Amino acid sequence: MISNAAIEKFDLPGIRHVIAVASGKGGVGKSTVSVNLALALAQTGLKVGVLDADIYGPSQGALLGLPEGTRPDVANELLQPVTAHGVGCMSMGFVTSERTPAIWRGPMASGALQQLLTQTEWGELDVLVVDMPPGTGDIQLTLAQRVPITGAVIVTTPQDIALLDARKGIEMFRKVEIPVIGIVENMSTHVCSNCGHTEAVFGSGGGESVAQDYDTRLLGHLPLALEVREQSDAGKPIVVSSPDAPASQVFKEIATQVNDFLRDAVSEAPVINILDD
């Protein structure tokens, strides 16, 4: 286990909780889960922000429907989050060209993310949802060690290779002593857009197995649904565009469980009594 005790954390004044949404590999829908989780939490009345830390493939701007070329305002030498659908967002895509790939080595990328996180005026937030880069390399480890993360959500699909990488992600967070809130199994079943027939095209039971092995919870199964993809491409996350859709209901259930975890985390924090002499 890697102790975080001697590692200085970034100062994030005004932010009560930080939730990392992570995956061991790309292509499992981590960013879609991140944005819909953030919006579902906001719909419960929480003040929520989104940090797009996926430095090599930032997509939160597009998922939130922000036009290409969106740039944040600057006030008092601090970046101002760009607001969409009621949540403030900051992304590397806002400060670099969307059509130019970020070709940076680990230390440079980590430094850029540090600036993006600490030089943004987030204001008072109940939750900052961090869309982590996929994988378990230097950037992910630096973020996990330096950001005061309350807990992590692991996104996977039922495929064996995705589950293997999800296990690696859980192990990384455990080594840096960050609680894993639970697992989201995305693309659990394919839903036919014509007849509604469902089929587990990528297998079944994988998410439950990983959750059981690591004594964590399976937060929910998300379907591979055409509507989710279409609304994401249109910049209208399913939780906002179709709040009664089955996928939206799953996201809301996930948000409820995350919110319960955050409340428990506060109640379990040590209480310091200050006595007058």
Overview of this protein structure:
This protein has 277 residues and is an alpha/beta fold. The protein has one domain: P-loop containing nucleotide triphosphate hydrolases (Rossmann fold, 3-Layer(aba) Sandwich). 35% of the residues lie in helices and 19% in strands. The protein has helices at residues 30-42, 60-63, 106-118, 138-146, 160-175, 206-213, 226-233, 238-241, 246-267; strands at residues 15-22, 48-52, 74-75, 78-79, 82-84, 87-91, 125-131, 151-156, 180-185, 190-191, 198-199, 217-221. It has an eight-stranded mixed β-sheet with strand order 5-6-2-7-1-8-9-12, sandwiched between helices. A two-stranded antiparallel sheet has the order 3-4. Strands 10-11 form a two-stranded antiparallel sheet. It starts with 14 loop residues before the first strand and ends in a 10-residue tail after the last helix.
Q: How many angstroms does the end-to-end distance come to? A: 40 Å
Residues in helices, as a percent range: 25-40%
Outline, from the CA principal axes?
A: globular
> Class by helix and strand content?
alpha/beta
Q: What are the low-pLDDT stretches, counting only 5+ consecutive residues below 50?
A: 269-277
Q: Give the strand order of the largest sheet, numbering strands 1, 2, ... along the chain.
A: 5-6-2-7-1-8-9-12
How many strand units? 12
Total domains: 1
How many distinct helices?
Answer: 9
Instruction: Predict the CATH topology.
Output: Rossmann fold
Proportion of strand residues: 15-25%
What's the order of the H and E elements? Answer: EHEHEEEEHEHEHEEEHEHHH
CATH architecture: 3-Layer(aba) Sandwich
Q: Taking Cα atoms only, what radius of gyration do you get, to the nearest Å?
A: 18 Å
Top-tier CATH class: Alpha Beta
In round numbers, the mean pLDDT is 88
Q: Quick one: biggest sheet?
A: 8 strands, mixed
Write down the oligomeric state: single chain
CATH homologous superfamily grouping = P-loop containing nucleotide triphosphate hydrolases
